[in-house]
Amino acid sequence: MTLHPIKIFMVALMVVGAATRAMGDDDHESETERSEHEAVRAAVERGELKPLSVVLQAVLPKLPGEVVGIEIEREDGVWIYEFRVAGEKGRLFDVYVDAATAQILKTKEK
User: Fold this and answer.
1) Nearest-angstrom CA–CA distance, 71 and 77
2) Listed residue (37, 39, 40) closest to 50, CA to CA
3) Fewer CB within 10 A of the terminal residue: the chain, N end or C end?
4) pLDDT cut 70: percent of the chain above it
């Protein structure tokens, strides 16, 4: 089977187009991440939530293991830190903490 130059060109265009779209998506995600970081930083400056370092000092002694991941979300107007914690025997927990008060709201085993 012989590939004609036009077919090779068309395949190359499709590959380049797909790669360009994928790179564009990455730019959009990083832009979204930047705006989320800015929103969190602004909320800390306004006193709506405590900085992560302060919350960690308060909750680390109460956690059932080692923190392996952290997320922050706003749920119903309340900032919540979600800590993924690896406990004994490979058990995983999600620990939800009120970001304004550093109080543990709930712990859920995964």
Assistant:
1) 16
2) 40
3) N
4) 74
Q: Is the pLDDT of residue 72 over 90?
A: yes
Inter-residue contact 70 to 84 (CB < 8 Å) = yes
Residue 47: phi, psi to the nearest 5?
A: 85, 15
Q: CA–CA separation, 24 vs 29, rounded Å?
A: 9
| Integer-rounded Cα radius of gyration of the chain | 22
pLDDT digit string (tens) for 16-67?
A: 444 444 444 455 567 877 888 898 899 999 999 999 999 999 999 999 999 9
Residue written as tokens 């919540």? 80
Tokens of 70: 């952290």
Round to whole Å and give the CA distance between 101 and 49. Answer: 7
Maximum pairwise Cα distance, the chain:
70
pTM of the model: 0.69
* Identity of residue 5: P
